[in-house]
């Protein structure tokens, strides 16, 4: 007689309610899902002496091969069995949260009907507002990120009598093996955790600052999606001006140089429903950041005097020749360079462009023996490009300086000055062969003699030959390599010009 296998659907019935012949009502009691029983039912517990016309003869003994596929009761509720729970669980799923989870969906007999793993993408949905079957809406509540649980749902809290019209038949209990990967609420703002602030924090970042920081970026389940460390360079950006995602713009405000913090960013302040690259849609982002330095484009050089001698009357000025020692480092303490390791001083003419602008500013008004720390923002240092292999781009520099020697320079615009009265017959004295023309060699010998005798002084720190050639060229008005008496003039005899003369 008929078989449920032939119909292609299970036989669905309440047990003990008179919906079955008496023998089957008794035979099904005590069965487990996936249990198979061979049931022999005598006529008195089946269809008796009358049978069923055309199907079962009178007084027939019936034999059934029964496989129990599913069972449930109207009193059943959603069953939740957690088989893994992380040690740390700062937050659990609540009504109206948005979650991302993976699942395997099976029937009670273990038959797989669906799996998010096979699609290689999470199932993303709101919880508790009717986007899911009622049993799953209940079963996800209270979960932690990383938690794994089995959620068993009776059909009246799933797809009921009709099923889903595709893979799930009517009256089917469903079993979901779920792992929660992500959790947030649309009302969430960013969360800042694990702050480690240096003891010395003179300044905190504000809107408009430019910041350099390292980071590891992960999803809530710990999956790494990006790291500045792997690129071996910091991420450099303005803060609070929309150059980064909104959550990071906010998370980078109020930080100190050297600070470490974790910034947790919900997707509506991150990459939203679409995601980006390795970041899936609707993903909560976790950034562990380390602030290397920051500055503001309006910053000037910062000078902190560490030691100043009691006798400090002669102060450095533009044009002075300085000899000093320095240690150069980044704001995080990374040493870049040191004259001490070279065993010799660094020597410059102040204000002549031989060092970065910030150092020219930082060495002003300093006396011999003074020690100071000079902090130079990148726009007064090595700028966005830095120095390849030595100074990172956009880096704030810290110089610890000690001035060891100062030779006073000449007034601005002069490369040579007289220490006494100037001879009224200056041209004749230079023109030693009295031919009315002065050559570069004659000019050079004369200037050298004045310097050696102490009658004249050259600007310190510059190459003698270059200075003399420059002075000679300025006197050689027609450029023929000779200076005549008509061409020769002292500087104070002319209107001020941009070249160096006697």
From TrEMBL:
| Reactions performed catalytically | [protein]-peptidylproline (omega=180) = [protein]-peptidylproline (omega=0)
PPIase FKBP-type domain location: 1-72, 96-184, 208-295, 319-407
> Where do the segments described as Disordered lie?
475-502
Keyword vocabulary terms for this entry: Calcium, Endoplasmic reticulum, Glycoprotein, Isomerase, Metal-binding, Repeat, Rotamase, Signal
Q: Which ranges does the record mark as transmembrane?
A: none
Q: Which domain of life is it from?
A: Eukaryota
Q: Which InterPro entries match?
A: EF-hand-dom_pair (IPR011992), EF_Hand_1_Ca_BS (IPR018247), EF_hand_dom (IPR002048), FKBP-like_isomerase (IPR051989), PPIase_dom_sf (IPR046357), PPIase_FKBP_dom (IPR001179)
The protein's job, in short, is:
PPIases accelerate the folding of proteins during protein synthesis.
Please give the name of this protein: peptidylprolyl isomerase
Which species is this UniProt entry from? Tauraco erythrolophus
């Amino acid at each position: 007689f008929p078989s449920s296998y032939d119909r292609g659907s299970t036989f669905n019935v309440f047990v003990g309610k008179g919906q079955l012949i008496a023998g089957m009502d008794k035979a099904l009691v005590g069965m487990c899902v996936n249990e198979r029983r061979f049931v022999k039912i005598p006529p008195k517990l089946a269809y008796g002496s009358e049978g069923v016309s055309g199907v079962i003869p009178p007084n027939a003994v019936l034999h059934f091969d029964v496989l129990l596929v599913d069972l449930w009761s109207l009193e059943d509720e959603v069953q939740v069995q957690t088989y893994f729970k992380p040690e740390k669980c700062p937050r659990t799923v609540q009504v109206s949260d948005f979650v991302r989870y993976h699942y395997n969906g099976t029937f009670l007999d273990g038959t797989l009907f669906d799996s998010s793993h096979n699609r290689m993408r999470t199932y993303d949905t709101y919880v508790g507002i009717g986007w899911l079957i009622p049993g799953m809406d209940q079963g996800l509540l209270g979960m932690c990120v990383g938690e794994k649980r089995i959620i068993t749902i009776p059909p009246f809290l799933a797809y009921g009598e009709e099923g889903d019209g595709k893979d799930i038949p009517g009256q089917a209990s469903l079993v979901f093996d779920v792992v929660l990967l992500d959790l947030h609420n649309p009302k969430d703002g960013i969360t800042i955790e694990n702050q480690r602030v240096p003891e010395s924090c003179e300044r905190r970042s504000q809107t408009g600052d430019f910041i350099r920081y390292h980071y590891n970026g992960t999803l809530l389940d710990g999956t790494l999606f990006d790291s500045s460390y792997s690129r071996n360079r910091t991420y450099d950006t303005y803060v609070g001006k929309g150059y980064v995602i909104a959550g990071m713009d906010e998370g980078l405000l109020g930080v100190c140089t050297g600070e470490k913090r974790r910034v947790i960013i919900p997707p509506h302040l991150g990459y939203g429903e679409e995601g980006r690259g390795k970041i899936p849609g609707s993903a909560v982002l976790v950034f562990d950041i380390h602030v290397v330095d920051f500055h503001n484009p309006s910053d000037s050089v910062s000078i902190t005097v560490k030691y100043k001698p009691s006798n400090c009357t002669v102060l450095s000025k533009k044009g002075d020749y300085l000899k000093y020692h320095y240690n150069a480092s980044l704001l995080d303490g990374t040493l870049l360079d040191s004259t001490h390791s070279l065993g010799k001083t660094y020597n410059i003419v102040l204000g002549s462009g031989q060092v970065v602008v910030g150092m020219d500013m930082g060495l002003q008004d300093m006396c011999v023996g003074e020690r100071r720390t000079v902090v130079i923002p990148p726009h007064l240092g090595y700028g966005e490009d830095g120095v390849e292999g030595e100074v990172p781009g956009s880096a704030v520099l810290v110089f610890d300086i000690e001035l060891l020697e100062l030779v006073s320079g000449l007034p601005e615009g002069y490369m040579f000055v007289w220490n006494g009265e100037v001879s009224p017959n200056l041209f004749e004295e230079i023109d030693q062969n009295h031919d009315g023309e002065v050559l570069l060699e004659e000019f050079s010998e004369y200037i050298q003699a004045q310097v050696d005798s102490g009658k004249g002084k050259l600007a310190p720190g510059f190459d003698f030959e270059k200075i003399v050639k420059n002075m000679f060229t300025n006197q050689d008005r027609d450029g023929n390599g000779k200076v005549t008496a008509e061409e020769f003039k002292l500087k104070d005899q002319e209107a001020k010009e941009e070249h160096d003369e006697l």
